[in-house]
Design goal:
- The chain has 431 residues and is of the alpha/beta class.
- It has a domain at 71-106 and 219-400: Rossmann fold (3-Layer(aba) Sandwich), CATH 3.40.50.
- 43% of the residues lie in helices and 16% in strands.
- The chain is built from 19 helices and 14 strands.
- A 6-stranded mixed β-sheet has the order 4-5-13-10-11-12.
- Helix 6 (166-173) links the parallel strand 7 and strand 8.
- Helix 14 (335-346) crosses helix 15.
- The structure holds pyridoxal-5'-phosphate.
- Pyridoxal-5'-phosphate binds at residues 105, 107, 137-138, 215, 248-254, 302-303, 356, 382-383.
Length: 431
């Protein structure tokens, strides 16, 4: 399997090269040169996430130096539970809980997989590997957790100062050692632009091997596609029907993984993208006009993205607007609707939604009864509500118990440096 740049199919790479580079040399994003075809029966006997993931990912690893290590990578990365919990409604609906990893958000899947893969790549010891990661809140913590203490690798986390929740900030800054945390005076889009500028800077690239752990890295999308394979197979085996998914979306990495899993042939029906008030993608689906804009702060801050990177991959797959419009649907959920949904659903659930997951729950509530009955629905839960107590607790009038892994991180001291959103300041911080 080769991986091609979205901007020039002539720029191809092996999987190992794509993982190590993150971004293609021409600034494009790597996509598989072809999608393998797999049907539900190809997964007979595979029931756990690691078992499903190995079958799903084998064709994506064919011919690569990492192929023999796939089982070990999957086993190391996916060592926490992935419950698919019935919602308890009259119609068939379930919640895919992706928040049982070390930093309590779905980013742990991609970050841990990428770390396990990069750790197995041979590289020259003379040039350290620097992983640059721009984060809107959860990615940076997951990447830092996954790489912390690994020899020969340095992680640089860039996050928008004041625009992440206090507990997210704690997870971004509690590491030290081989992790540098930079609070950038700007937005997530500024952080993302800085990472891109660092890649384009020949001086930086000469002294270190730069890589990116953002969802632009194909090594994050592949493991995410595995949990869609897993959840869709579990639903198909139970009901004989393809599942529809609702995905809280920002930079589109999570939903793109679902699109890829569906393209491979997994039993996945409709994909509904739930957005906060950052409506670049919903507006594009409605009008056909691509108009990126600055991000706006919302309660679902990890989805505050005005110029989602993975749109380039989605449009590569569906170059024509009508086709793209047919492939995914979108809903916009205001902060007010997020609050109301957390309050309303609290009564019927064991635990409240996090603000991001609440956008998916609201999208589900907006479906017509006929649509709800038409297929089994899976609501993708992207983070644990205990990461956002300042939003969730006043709404439900109760405290949210903190999962033990998260509680441990909250005790650690902070290591952080504040920088202006300029390449000069970033280079200075890296020096
Ligand atoms: C990152 C994130 C999202 C958005 O996911 P994308 O892949 O950027 O679309 C949603 N919810 C949470 C909790 C996140 O951390």
């Amino acid at each position: 399997m080769r991986y091609l740049s979205t901007r020039d199919a002539g720029q191809s790479a092996t999987l190992s090269e794509a993982l190590a580079r993150g971004l293609a040399p021409d600034g494009g994003l790597y996509v598989p040169s072809a999608f393998p075809a797999l049907a539900a029966r190809d997964f007979d006997g595979a029931t756990t996430l690691p078992e499903v993931a190995v079958r799903f990912l084998t064709p994506f690893f064919v011919g690569d130096a990492l192929a023999p290590a796939l089982g070990a990578i999957v086993g190391e990365a996916f060592d926490f539970p992935v419950p698919l919990v019935a919602l308890g409604t009259a119609e068939d609906a379930a919640v895919l809980e992706l928040f049982h990893g070390p930093t309590a958000a779905f980013k742990d899947f991609g970050a841990r997989f990428l770390a396990a893969a990069l750790a197995r790549l041979p590289r020259a010891a003379s040039r350290p590997l620097s992983i640059l990661v721009a984060t809107s809140g959860d990615t940076g913590g997951a990447v830092a957790a996954a790489f912390h203490g690994r020899p020969g690798v340095e992680v640089v986390v860039l996050y928008p100062k004041g625009l992440v929740s206090p507990r997210q900030e704690q997870q971004l800054t509690c590491w030290g050692g081989n992790v540098r945390s930079l609070a950038v005076q700007g937005t997530f889009d500024d952080c993302q632009a800085l990472v891109k500028a660092a890649f384009a800077d020949t001086g930086l690239a000469a002294e270190r091997v730069l890589s990116s752990a953002n969802s632009i890295n194909v090594g994050r999308l592949l493991p995410q596609a595995s949990y869609y394979a897993y959840a869709s197979l579990a639903t198909f085996r139970r009901t004989g029907r393809a599942a529809n998914f609702i995905v809280p979306s920002g930079n589109l990495g999570n939903v793109l993984a679902a699109v890829w899993a569906r393209r491979v042939g997994l039993p996945i029906g409709e994909l509904v993208l739930a957005f906060n008030e950052n409506r670049t993608v919903p507006d594009y689906l409605a009008t056909g006009e691509w108009r990126p804009r600055p991000s706006r702060p919302t309660l679902a801050s990890a989805m505050d993205v005005g110029n989602p990177s993975n749109m380039e991959r989605l449009r590569h797959l569906y170059p024509e607007w009508p086709a793209l419009k047919g492939a995914v649907a979108a809903t916009v959920v205001s902060d007010e609707a997020i609050r109301a949904r957390i309050r309303t659903d609290r009564a019927s659930l064991k635990q409240p939604w996090c603000p991001h997951t609440a956008t998916a729950a609201e999208a589900y509530a907006r479906l017509t009864p006929a649509a709800r009955a038409a297929a089994p629905w899976v609501l993708v839960s992207t983070a644990h509500p205990a990461k956002f107590p300042e939003t969730v607790e006043p709404l439900i009038g109760a405290s949210v118990p903190v999962p033990p892994a998260l509680a441990r991180l909250l005790e650690l001291p902070k290591h952080v440096r504040e920088i202006p959103a300029t390449l000069a300041a970033l280079k200075d911080a890296l020096a």
